[in-house]
Amino acid sequence: MASQPHDSSRHDNTLAVIRTLREQGPAARVDLGILNGISSATVTSISAELLQQGLIAELPPDTPRPSGRGRPKTLIQLAPEAACVICVKLSINELQLVVGDYSGQMQHSEHHSVATLALTPADLVALLEEKIAEVRSLALASHRRLVGICLAVQGVVASHSGTLIWSPALSFRNAALAPLLTERFGCPVLLENDANCIASVLATQPAYAGYPNLAVIMLGYGIGMSLLIDGVPFLGANGSAAEFGHSKYQPGGAQCACGKRGCVEAYAGDYALYRKAREVLELPAGDSAHPSEAQMQALTQLAMQGNPDAQRIFAEAGRALGYGMANLLALFNPDLVLVTGSGVRGYAAMQEAMQDAIDEALVSELIGPTRIVSCPWDRDMTCLGGIAITLQATDSQRLTES
Amino acid sequence: MASQPHDSSRHDNTLAVIRTLREQGPAARVDLGILNGISSATVTSISAELLQQGLIAELPPDTPRPSGRGRPKTLIQLAPEAACVICVKLSINELQLVVGDYSGQMQHSEHHSVATLALTPADLVALLEEKIAEVRSLALASHRRLVGICLAVQGVVASHSGTLIWSPALSFRNAALAPLLTERFGCPVLLENDANCIASVLATQPAYAGYPNLAVIMLGYGIGMSLLIDGVPFLGANGSAAEFGHSKYQPGGAQCACGKRGCVEAYAGDYALYRKAREVLELPAGDSAHPSEAQMQALTQLAMQGNPDAQRIFAEAGRALGYGMANLLALFNPDLVLVTGSGVRGYAAMQEAMQDAIDEALVSELIGPTRIVSCPWDRDMTCLGGIAITLQATDSQRLTES
Fold first, then answer.
1. Hey, which of A148, A199, B161, B324 has its CA 20 to 30 A from B12?
2. Residue B194 and residue B112 share a domain
3. How far apart are CA B302 and CA B322, in angstroms?
4. CATH number for the domain including B96?
5. Which helix (H) or strand (E) is B110 found in, with range?
6. Which range marks the domain in which residue A344 is found?
7. CA distance A162 to A3
8. Cβ separation of B370 and A242 shorter than 8 Å?
């Protein structure tokens, strides 16, 4: 009993050192201590243990320091080969599989076109098992072990039970995917909402430090959100919090992919924009209910080039988005709203109408100091977040068990 | 440095003991230890210190135990006379002043009719100073000292800076009330949102234990909300989170007291119900823009007695409330939504339409396990919450300083 508090602080300090090395790269022991408020003696002891376990390595002492002056110090870094994780991103008509090394870097990425809406639950599990097994063989050629798998999905997930509740990429609901894959691969399998993966990457970026209550809105086929409260994703009672896309703009309004009417997504999601646009514009052929990136680029180009019909459609989407944001601001009053996702390609065409709608909807006292900014989209960001979340969870689990 | 962790745990344990005595009444030392996970030796030491400070007293050993069997144990209780706090509740056309003793009980309450909307900032400060000074004299006759004052206000407050940003009871905005009163009375003055006061009382009730993410919706002239996340009121970036009443039901819809259109409050607030009703119904004369409780009772009676116009008006309000709840559920997915406030008198006439609207708005996966229940209204609950919050804050401050 007496050593409990000490063990628990050792556990936290070890995780903090690993996390700093993962987020900031190679560092000297003394700087790791300062950054995390840990004594030098403790950092030395922790790093000795990690070195012995092969989880970190020392850089040659003559390596120039990234910045700063004075006598060069020995830097330590995470050993990339010590372990790996696999992140699988499931979105409409696409499966992406990525291998992340122990330092959190992406080492391999592959994309597969899959008619996701035609899959049965059994098809999906078989497909995941096959593709993960292939990627695992590849990954284990250059990493000592696979410590975890992350399934990052667009839609509503119950992270605690590993159940996919509902995704626009699938035509079935309530699939307990994580337990099945855990059994198959013998390692922890996390099921995460794609927006939470992205938020966990953005939250570590220096530009967004100082905003503890952060909403990340993901525009795309659907519209997702992650709410970070004091830096931690807020999941709600069953993990389905932050469903911004299905908050309401217009009761009884446009048909949404969820089956209900008037959701923000039914105006500002890719499919909603394309649905409106093809009534009045010449657009590339293809699956217009699930427009591809090329189709959406073509539509966005029209708006950017000044086509009045396209501009009106994006402005209407911006207005719905603005009313949704107004509710978010009234209820949550976040420090910062970051708008990203593939649909951020059309943000410039929506922004003015969005801001006008917020001003129309809310008195300035309720808009408050919240900043709303867009952030360029990187299609690998979801998987990078999934890698980071999985490495952190499995590090924590390993330390608790040891 | 070495003794820091020990001091901080002593501080937390002392606060826990005081809080338990305040919420649950007289208790034996051994039970205080079990309830709070503290050793008997620590409880004995803490209670010795509190006894010496005159903050607690022992009950005579022959006092029968409230429940249970076995040898009677000496119970301790908070000494009511050890300190007092004053809570001032400011709402439309009314000022309530309450004295709370150190055990958290209300010892005095007075109501004053005041034309609040006609007050200038200077009028309000002068009025508060006068009324608080009177009540303070009264309170100090039977309590050793005044440790704090709470101003509980309907509307948006920035608790950190003690600034009242905006209240439907006042015609001015942005008044730094708490600093002025702190200077005048020489004790801490807290400015709190009325819904947060009520939520802090409800959250301690056994019936609502086990719901860490709790939304309390206050129906009345306006519609307020408090969001508790892991039991702690969520304030957002500038303290204006949880403004449920100004989330949107219908873009460009009914005129709201805030100056904008289409807010949930503009359909379901007392003034909105009465505004609609007087177009078609014979109702008691009076200030129909700020209907009194008697006026609202008369309107509610009509609906309860089956008047179809009155029923339709409450059903429309219920629909707006339901769409507001749908957004709350989509964004926050709380464990429990408690509906209370004086306006809960009309809840039975709104409930069916509210539930229908939620079902119309959200797929069942997003409604999830959230329970929505109403809770009878007690007009003193705001002040009881203000007393509890102020006692807790001032206890914590005293322990930090000592």
1. B161
2. yes
3. 22
4. 3.30.420.40
5. strand B106-113
6. 209-374
7. 34
8. no
- Give how many domains chain B has, as a whole number: 3
Q: Are residues B271 and B163 in the same domain?
A: no
Considering only the beta carbons, identify the residue of A229, A247, A366 that sits closest to B156.
A366
**Interface size, chain A vs chain B, as Cβ–Cβ contacts under 8 Å:** 156
What is the model's pLDDT at position A61?
67
Residues of A in contact with B259 (CB under 8 A): 363
Residue type, B187: C
Nearest chain A residue to B211, by CA = A237
| Cβ distance of B365 and A240 shorter than 8 Å | yes
- Please tell me which of the candidates A237, A243, A362 has its beta carbon nearest to residue B369: A237
Same domain, B251 and B368: yes
Assess if residue A204 is contained within a domain.
no
Based on the fold, state whether residues B87 and B99 are members of the same structural domain: yes
Angle between helix axes B4-24 and B29-36 (nearest 10 degrees) is 110
- ipTM of the complex in this document: 0.85
Residues of A in contact with B357 (CB under 8 A): 251
Q: How far apart are CA B204 and CA B231, in angstroms?
A: 9
Q: Please give the C-alpha separations between residue B131 and each of A42, A343, B159, B386, in angstroms, as whole numbers.
A: 58, 57, 22, 17
Percent of chain B with pLDDT over 90: 76
Residues A302 and A236 in one domain: yes
Q: Which among A78, A96, A118 is the end of a domain?
A: A78
Per-residue pLDDT reduced to its tens digit, B129-155: 999 999 999 999 999 999 999 999 988
- pLDDT attached to residue B154: 87
Nearest-neighbour CA in chain A from B159: distance (Å) = 14
Residue ending a domain, among B78, B100, B135, is B78
- pLDDT tens for B72-108 read 788 999 999 999 999 999 998 999 999 999 999 999 9
